[in-house]
Amino acid sequence: MTNIQNDRLLKVLKGETVDRAPVWLMRQAGRYLPEYLATREKAGSFMGLCQTPELACEVTLQPIERFGFDAAILFSDILTIPDAMGLGLYFTEGEGPQFQRPIRTLDAIQQLPIPDPEQDLRYVMDAVRLIKKSLGNKIPLIGFAGSPWTLASYMIEGKSSRDFINSKALLYAQPEAVQLLLDKLSEAVSLYLRAQITAGADVVMIFDSWGGVLPEDAFLRFGLPSIQKVVDDVKKHAPHIPIISFTKGGGLWLNKIKELAIDGIGIDWTISLAQAREAVGNTKCLQGNLDPTILFTNPRVVQEEVKKILQQNTLQTSHIFNLGHGILPRTPIENVEALVAAIRGE
Amino acid sequence: MTNIQNDRLLKVLKGETVDRAPVWLMRQAGRYLPEYLATREKAGSFMGLCQTPELACEVTLQPIERFGFDAAILFSDILTIPDAMGLGLYFTEGEGPQFQRPIRTLDAIQQLPIPDPEQDLRYVMDAVRLIKKSLGNKIPLIGFAGSPWTLASYMIEGKSSRDFINSKALLYAQPEAVQLLLDKLSEAVSLYLRAQITAGADVVMIFDSWGGVLPEDAFLRFGLPSIQKVVDDVKKHAPHIPIISFTKGGGLWLNKIKELAIDGIGIDWTISLAQAREAVGNTKCLQGNLDPTILFTNPRVVQEEVKKILQQNTLQTSHIFNLGHGILPRTPIENVEALVAAIRGE
C-alpha cells in the first residue's frame, strides 16, 4: 500500500503491529531548537516563515534530522484559514496571534468566504509538496488544521483568550449564528485537509485546542459535530488517509470522541493512557501524553516518565508517543534526546 | 443544632431535604458590583481591602443585600497564607498576584514557618468575627483556603502561570522537596480553616484551583493526599462543620475525590451535573456548575441555562447552585438577578 520506509505511524493507525511506539512531538519544529530560531530570523517573522515554502520545509525537517522522529508535521499555523477568510492575522512579540478584524455578528459570518486552498492558501500546499519531496519517502508527513470550534473561538475573540467570554456568549445567545460559522469552517477545514492530502500529506490531524473550554452539552452539540463533518468529508474523499483528532481537555468526552470515523485520538496528560484506553475501547489508536513540563527536569526523570507511559500501553499496536500538548519554548534539547532514547529502548 | 434562619446550605450539605437549591456564587463579592468598586477605591488596594476587617465585612455583605444569596463567603484571598509565610504578596494592576520571594529550593522550603492564624493572619480572623456578627444568624458564613498544591504552585511560580513549568518540573525532579512543601501547607491550611471555624465560619471550602493542571498520577499522589490531610484534620477538630472541596478541571477524578471525608464537591462546567452525580454516587452534595460566560448573554438565556442545570438534579437534596468558576469582572448585574430569580422559581 505505502512505499514509506519508516511506516510505524501508518501501521499503528491501521491497527497493525510494530516493533515499538512511533514518536513525534507536537510543535517539534519550534522555538526550543537553535536551528529553528536561525531560520526564523532569516524569515523575518513567523508568518513569513509559514508563507515561504522553502523555509517552512527547512524547519519541518530540522527536528527529523536532529532526533529521527517517526513522522514529520507540516510547519504552519492553524490560523491560516481565518487569515485566508480575510480576518487579517498578525503576530505581536509576546502577545500571540491576533486578528485585525474579529467576527462578532451574523452578518459578518454570512459574508465570510470559503477559501480555495490551491488559490488562497497556495503557500501551504506548496510547502506540503516541497516537504513531501524532501522527505523522500523516508517517514510519513502529517498535515493538519484547527477544529472548527477552535478557529471560531479565535475568530470571535480576535486573539488568544483566557475566559472565551465573547465566543462562548455568542454561542449561548446566538447559537444559529455560531452554527453557521462552524458549518462554514467545517467546509473550509475539510477542503484544506483534502488539498493537503492531494499535495502529499500521508496523515492528517485536527487540533481541537479549545474544545475543552466548552460545557459538556455545548461540546456535544456544537464542537464535536463540527469535527465530525470534517472527518466524514475527508474520509469520503480520501478513505485510506488516517485521521487523528485531539481535543485538549477532552478526557471526559472520549466515549463520544471515539464515535468519530477517525483512526487516532490525541489525549493530554490529565487522563492516564490506561484510563483513556478504558474509555475508548480497542478500536482506535491513542496519541500522547507526556506532560511537556516534564521536559524541564533532567534526562533521568524524563526516561522514567516516558517508561511509565509506555508501560500503560497494554495493546502493543495502538499507541503513538507524543506530548499531551505542544513542546514549550526553552525546553532543554538533552531532555528531548532522552525522551527519544527511552522510546527506542536505548 | 443550628440557629441560622436560612439553613438551606447547611441542610443540603447534611443530606437533608430543602424547598429549593441554595445558591451563592464564587467571587460573589467582586469587581462586577459598583458598590464593591467603591469600597475597594476607599481601601486603596486589594490587599488593603482584605486586611481591613470593616471593609472586608462591608464587601462580603454587599452581594447578600443585593441578591439575597443563601450564603456569605468571607472576602479574602487564597494567597494570605503564603504571604504570612514571608513570600511578600503584592498586586500589580492587570498582572494578578505576585510574590517578591518565590520558593524554589528544598532549603527555602525547610525554612518556611507555619503561620499562627490568630497571630499572623489576625486580620482574616477579625474579618470572620465581624462578618459573622453582622450577618446576625440570617445565613451561614463560608470560610475558605486554597488547596496545598494550588498554594505550592503559586509559591514556586511566584505569580499566576499558564504552563506551571517551574512548579511541575520541581514536583517531577524533586518530589521530596515538593512533598515537604505540601505537608507544611496542609498543616498551615488546616490551622487556618480551624481558626476560621473558631471565629465563626459555618462551612469551609477548599479551592483547588490548579489541581486540574496535574497529570492524573501526580494529582493522586500529591494533590489529593494533601487535601485529604487538611480535611481529616479539620474534621477531627470540628466534625460538625461541613467541608466543600473544589478541584477545577477535576471532573475525571471525581471517583477519587469522593473518597475524601468532605460533604460537598465543587464541579466546573466541563462535566454535566448528571454525569458528576453518576461518578460520585449519592453520598455527597454537588456544587456548581454554570459556565460564568453564560452571564454575558441575556436574562432569557441565563434562565434557560440555569433551569437545564436544575433539571439534572435528580436528588432534590443534594445540589448547591453555583458557577463552575468565579464570576467574571464586567458581568452584567441583570443577568445575576435573572440567575437568582430562576432558582427561586420567579
How does the SSE layout of this entry go?
Two copies of one chain form a homodimer.
Chain A: H1 8-13, H2 34-43, H3 46-51, H4 53-67, E1 72-73, H5 80-87, E2 89-92, E3 96-99, H6 106-111, H7 117-120, H8 122-135, E4 141-146, H9 148-157, H10 165-173, H11 175-199, E5 203-208, H12 216-237, E6 243-247, H13 254-257, E7 264-266, H14 273-280, E8 285-290, H15 299-312, E9 319-323, H16 333-344
Parallel strand pairs in A: 1-4, 4-5, 5-6, 6-7, 7-8, 8-9
Antiparallel strand pairs in A: 2-3
CATH class of chain A: Alpha Beta
Q: What oligomeric state do these chains adopt? A: homodimer
* Unreliable segments of 5+ consecutive residues of chain A: none
Of all protein chain pairs, which has the greatest interface, and how many residues does each chain bring to it? A-B, 34 and 34 residues
Name the CATH architecture of chain A. Answer: Alpha-Beta Barrel
How would a crystallographer describe the biggest sheet of chain A?
A: 7 strands, parallel
Q: Give the helix proportion of chain A (percent range).
A: 40-55%
CATH topological fold name of chain A:
TIM Barrel
Question: How would you characterize this protein structure?
Answer:
2 copies of one chain form a homodimer. With 346 residues, chain A is an alpha/beta fold. The first copy, chain A, has a single domain (8-344), classed as TIM Barrel, CATH 3.20.20.210. In chain A, 50% of the residues lie in helices and 12% in strands. The first copy, chain A, has a 7-stranded parallel beta sheet. Chain A has a two-stranded antiparallel sheet with strand order 2-3. In chain A, α12 links the parallel β5 (203-208) and β6. In chain A, α9 crosses α10, α9 crosses α11 and α10 crosses α11. Chain A is globular and about 60 Å long. The relative contact order of chain A is 0.13.
